[in-house]
Amino acid sequence: MTGLRRTFCIVAALAALEASPWISSARADEVQDTFSQGVDLLQRGRREESLAVFKKLLGMSPTQEQAYALWKSTSSEIWTDLLVEGGDFQLIAKRLMELSMTERNARKADKDAILELVKVATDDGADPLARTQAIRTLSSEHGEYSAQMLLGFLTSEQQGERQRLAMHALIQLGPDVVVPLMAGLHSSDAVQRRNIALVLGSIGDVRTTAVLQFLAAMDADETVKGAASEGLSRMKIKGDALHSFLKLGNDYFLGHDNVLSDDMRSDVIWGWGSNNIEATPIPASLYSSEMSKLCYLHGLHLDPTSNDALAGLARAWCDEQQKLARLEAAGTDVGPWKARSEQALAAIHAVGIDGLDLALSWSVKTGDSTTGGALCRVLGPLAASPTPGLNAALASHDGAMRSEAAVALGMIALHSGNAASENVVNILAESVGREVARIALVIDADADRAAKVGSALGESGVFVTTVAKGTLGLLQARRAAGLDVILLADSLPDVTTAQVLDELKGDEHLAKIPVVLLAANAEEAAATYGDRIQGSIANADDMKPVQDALSASMTGDRALAEDLAARAGTVLGQLCHSGRGSCSPGVIASVSSAISNRPDSVSVPALGILSSCGGAEQVGSVVAILADEARSEGARSAAGLALAGILARNSSAASAEALAQVGAVAVSAAPVSVREAASRALALAKMDAAERAKILSKLQMSAK
After folding, report:
1. What is the SS3 assignment for 585?
2. Whether pLDDT at 9 is above 80
3. The predicted structure's pLDDT at residue 483
C-alpha cells in the first residue's frame, strides 16, 4: 500500500466528507459513513474487512449525486491509491468514479459557470495562462455546451479581438463543439456562418464534411462559400454534399466510430432557436437514430427524388419508434418524445413503398431484425404485390425477420386476391409452431457450480448460456434476443457484482429481467441488494427462486415473439379459410403443436387453422381442449369450432369415445359459447342414433 498509509490524506478526506452538502440526508449519511469506514480499514491494513465494506457500499446503490459528492470532496490522492491497490478495490473505485461522471455530465449545462469561463477565455487583457486554463476547464467540465456562449462572439456585431479569441477557444475545444456549431449554420448572419465555417474547417472533423460541402456549393454569401472551400481544402476532402449527407446518415444509424465513438455521443440534440443554438434533451438510446434522421432530411432537401434519403428516413423513424416503445414498456418517461412516436407512423407511410422497401433491404443486409421487422409490418398492409425487400427478408437467416416477412406477404396475398407461395405458408406455420423457449444466463466464475445450475435448468427445458466474467455477461445480456432470468454470482473476477447489477437495472432493455444471486448466505444477499434481486440460491439444490422468476409472464422480446406467432396464426388461418394457402401435412403438424401449451393469442388462431385444414389425426388433441375446464372460454370455443370444421369435411373423423366427451360438454355447465360450439360439432358428426338421442334427452332435462 502506498498513500493510504499517509494518515493526513485520510484525515483530509474525512474532514471534506463532513463538509459535504448532502449530509442532511439519512441515505447520504449512510453512504458517507460506509465509504469513510472502508477507507479507514484499508489505511489500517485490514484489507478483507475494508473490501467487504466497500462491497456493501456498492450494494447500497449510491446515487449519481452521492457519488459526485464523494468524488468532489475526496482528494485525488485517495482515488489514486484505491486504483493503485488493484483488484476489487480498483473496480470499486472505478465504479464510484463512473457514477460521479454521470452526475458531472448532468452539470455540463451550467450557464453561469460557462459564462464565467468564457469571459476569461475571450478577455484579451487576461493572462494567457488563465485563458488557456479556462478553455481546458470548458473542455473537461462543459464540452459541447461551451459552444452556445461562444457563438455570440462570432456575429457581425462582435468584431475584434474577442471574436478572434472566441474562435480560437472553439478550435481548441475541437470535436466536442462540432455538432452544436453545425446547428449554428442556420444563422441568418453571414459573418457568423463564415466564422463557424472557418472554425469547423480548422477542427477538421469528418462529421463536418457534408455541411462544408453544402456551404461551399450553395450558401448565398461568397465569403461563407470561400471559408467552407478553404476548410475542405485543408481537410483534403472531395465529393458532393448529397452523398456525404447520405453516408453520414448511414454512419450514425449503424453507430460507426467516426461519428459515434464514446466521446461523440450526447443526450441532447442541437437546433437553431431565435438567435442562438438550443439543446433539446433526448433519451440516449435515440441519439443515433435522431442524428441519422437529420442527415437524411438534409439529403432529401438537396434532392427530393433521392430514394436513398427516403429509405434512410424510414429506417431511422422505425428504429426510433421501436426504441421509444421499449423505453415506455420499461417504465421510462419518454416525455415530449412520445408525440414523435405517435407521429412516426404517418411519417413512415409518407416515405412511400419504394423507400420503405429499400430500407427493408438495408435492414436485411445488416441483420437488423428489429427495424426490419417493423418495416415488414408497415409494408404488409400497403404493398400491392411482393416486393424485393420482402422477398429478401423471407430468405433471411434471422427467424424473426423471416417470419415478419411471411406475415406481410400473407397479408398481401389476402388483399390482392392471389395465392400465397408454399414458402410463405410454411414459414407462417413454422412461426406458429415455434415455441418461445425460456432462456437463462448464468454469470459465475465457479465452473462446477455454474455447470450444476445449468444442468438443473436444462432438465426443466430452459436454454442456458454460461459465462465466467461479469463483462462477458453484460455483453451477452445485451446481445441476447431475450432473457427470462439471470443468475449472478456474488463474486466475479473482473468487475463487482454490484456493478453488473447496476448496469442491468440501468439498461431499459434489461431492467425488468429478474436476477437471482448465487450466494452462500441468503440473508446477507437480501440485506445487501434488497429488491434489486429476485432472491438467492447457494447451489442447484434449491431452484425455487429461479422457477418463480421463470413462471412470470413473458416480457420484452419474448412477448414480441409470442405476438409474432399470434399474427402469423391469424394470417395463415385467413389464407387457409380463403383457399389462398395450401396446408401440407408439415403445416398441419406445426400448427397442431401450438394448440396445447401456448397462450390463447397463439392457440386460438392455430385452432382456426385446424378448422380449415385439420383432419382425423388432430381430433384427439382438439377434443381434449374442448373438454378441459382449465382452459379459457375462448380456447374451448375455438376447439369446438375446429372440430366442427374437421367433421364438416369428414363426418367420421371422431371416434365414439371422442364424441361422448363432446356430448358431455354440450350438456355441461360450460359457458354458452363453449356448449354451442360443441353442439355444432355434434350436428356434423356421424354418430350412433341412440347416442344422439341420449344427448338430446340430457339437454331437455338440463333446460328444466
Report:
1. helix
2. no
3. 80
* Closest alpha carbon to 529 in 501, 569, 566: 501
Integer Cα distance of 27 and 29 in angstroms: 5
Cell of 177: 463543439
Please give the Cα distance from 377 to 399 (Å, whole number): 15
Terminal alpha carbon distance of the chain:
92
For 334-364, the pLDDT digits (tens) are: 777 777 777 777 889 899 999 999 999 999 9
Distance CA 549, CA 598 (A): 18
Q: Are 153 and 276 in contact (CB under 8 A)?
A: no
Neighbours of 555 (CB within 10 A): 14
Task: Give the pLDDT score at 637.
Answer: 96
Beta strands 463-467 and 439-443 are: parallel
Q: Is the pLDDT of residue 457 over 90?
A: no
Q: Which residue has the higher pLDDT, 230 or 263?
A: 230
What the block records as the C-alpha cell of 377 is: 409490418
CB atoms within 10 A of CB 302: 21
Which residues is 467 bridged to in the sheet?
Answer: 443
CA–CA separation, 514 and 422 (whole Å): 41
Residues in the chain: 704
SS3 content of the chain, % helix, strand, coil (to 5): 70, 5, 25
If 0-12 CB within 10 Å is exposed, 13-18 middle and 19+ buried, where does residue 183 land? buried
564 CB contacts (<8 Å, ≥6 apart)?
Answer: 373, 400, 403, 404, 407, 431
Q: Tell me which of 479 and 481 has the higher pLDDT.
A: 479
Cβ-based neighbours of 363, under 8 Å, separated by 6 or more: 315, 369, 371, 372, 375, 393, 401
The neighbour count for residue 578, using CB atoms within 10 Å, is 14
Q: What is d(CA 524, CA 59) in angstroms, rounded to the nearest whole number?
A: 11
Task: Find, among 655, 456, 433, 644, the residue nearest to 543 by Cα.
Answer: 456
C-alpha cell at 170: 472553439
Are 404 and 564 in contact by the 8 Å Cβ rule? The answer is yes
- Interior angle at CA 445, CA 440 and CA 446, nearest 5: 95
DSSP 355: H
For residues 56 and 34, what is the distance between their CA atoms, to the nearest angstrom? 8
Task: Quote the cell numbers at residue 270.
Answer: 442541437
Contacts of 8 (CB under 8 A, 6+ apart): none
φ, ψ for residue 267 (rounded to 5)? -115, 20
Quote the pLDDT of residue 477.
83
Q: What separation in angstroms does the CA of 470 have from each of 388, 489, 518?
A: 42, 9, 13
CA proximity to 578, closest of 349, 417, 376: 417
DSSP per-residue letters across 395-456 = T-S-HHHHHHHHHHHHHHHHHHTPPPPHHHHHHHHHHHH-----EEEEE-S-HHHHHHHHHH
> pTM for the full model?
0.74
Q: How far apart are CA 387 and CA 409, in angstroms?
A: 9
CA distances to 355, 449, 475, 480 from 546, rounded to whole Å, are: 46, 15, 22, 19
Q: How many CB atoms lie within 10 A of CB 299?
A: 26
In terms of Cα–Cα distance, which of 75, 81, 77, 79 is closest to 98?
79
Q: Are 492 and 470 in contact (CB under 8 A)?
A: yes
For residue 480, give the C-alpha cell: 441476447
On whether the CB atoms of residues 141 and 108 are closer than 8 A, the answer is yes
Helix/strand number for the chain, H first, E second: 37, 7
Which strand (E) or helix (H) includes residue 262? none
pLDDT of residue 4: 38
Burial class (CB in 10 A: 0-12, 13-18, 19+), 86: exposed
